[in-house]
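Researcher: Next sequence.
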Amino acid sequence: LYMTYNGDEHDVDFKDKGTLVLGSGVYRIGSSVEFDWCSVSAIRTLRALGKPSVMLNYNPETVSTDYDECDRLYFDELSLERVLDVYEAESCSGVIVSVGGQIPNTIALPLKRAGVNVLGTSPDQIDRAEDRSKFSALCDEAGVAQPQWQSLSSTEDALSFGEKVGYPLLVRPSYVLSGAAMNVAYTPDELVGYLGEAALVSREHPVVISKFIEGGREIDVDGVGQGGKLLARAVMEHVENAGVHSGDATLMLPPRTLTSDELEQIDVVAEKICAALDITGPFNMQLIVKDGSVSIIECNVRASRSAPFASKALGVNLIEAATRAMKAGPNGEDKSVSLLPIPAHVAEQPGGARSSFWAVKSPMFSFKRLLGADPSLGVEMASTGEVAAFGPTVHDAFLKSLMASTVKLPQKHILVSIQEKLRDDFKPTLDKLSKLGYELYATEETSRFMDEADIPNTLLHFGESGLKPSIDDYLTDGKIELVIMLSNQYSKRTIDNYAVRRLAVDYGVPLVTNLQVAALFAESVEALGIGTSATTTQAMDVLSMQEQYEKAIGSTSS
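Model: Next structure:
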């Protein structure tokens, strides 16, 4: 169905008074099939509850726009005007805005002001989470630790804040998806430039600047609440340290390095935020853990792109749980709707995960199709997809997730280029790769460092130097099977580094730009005993997700 300005009468009758679910719209960086999975899970849950469903979406690539998934499908735009048209025509009992990503969330408050019954968390509370300044104030009131922050009032105040707390600073606009215009400023000049970008994408809402915590571990929490009470949560640890957007990060469930005390702190933060925002439905938080303390970065009161991964890793559909909570109401007003039973391992175990198997999510990128794009990661999202793998160990699951994301594991030849400030931290990984039998090639300064550390290597020159042997020749001739390039804001050869990253992508050579990912790769190859025979998968577990569930249930019952 669709709406029109020129019709005289409707072609259908409106008797069901169904629940309107807002979809995710067009696929793009930051909003893809993960949100459609959430939308479909919501309408399937409504069907299982015997509740009529109405779907509004305009993307023919989605499953949610299959006409047999819902009772009524409107193939139309996700605008305030159109949502009000459908809501009025169908006499909908309510609208679910929290499963389709950022577009529905953005219009939640205008919908409420227009008299729409928005199911789940109040749009006023959604606004408190989306508005950076309001959310930071809420965290202070709730006693939730966060990095030092300030709402932007003027460039002069921002520069003064930078002088007070020190750089780097994180610039965070409000009501954005995938970290749009979010940047880390390391100097006053960068701060001024980034503030201008953030103001352009967040004209009606404040921009907040906060102290950026370097070297912290970033944590994602997907949760479900009802009436401010936490029903379920999944705690996922990023392989990468803080500074990589969660959509580009490699996630591990259960968390790998968190202590029991840190997990308890995370649960406390989740409970406090759920209560402070009076959440009914899904939510997602990003946290930073450093030196035993937990700080919050942000909270999105909606389904996240990690919700499908978390649900499959837990064996519990978090969106089904959230949909049931939203339909039941904050206080369980609708007695015809039962809540989803939450298994003991989710409700009671630290982090919510089974300990008998691991799940790892790896991102996928389309840099090869984006001519000239720099294949490096930061706080603004760049990935266009993701894959997940399961295994008995984190090493097994991690390598399988890399392979599933089209990364071909190297047999022999690896090029490394490491920025000076990262070399000492990466030295153990270089030693490990060498002892595993890999032939290491290195750029000038990295080669000199490796020589001093007695790590065997072959020097390759940057192409622009005209010297031989060159990186360009080895990449184009297929003599390099993996490039590890670890650069940062202190790198001097930024153009040369970009040229190498770009050349690797253009010639289909796997590229790793994160120290923690490279280190876990070396650990995993060593743990599985693969080494330079990485083309074989005999050492890897071959159980499916369903078989992992069965194995976990069997081990629990025994």
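Model: The mean pLDDT is 88. The first helix runs from residue 33 to 48.
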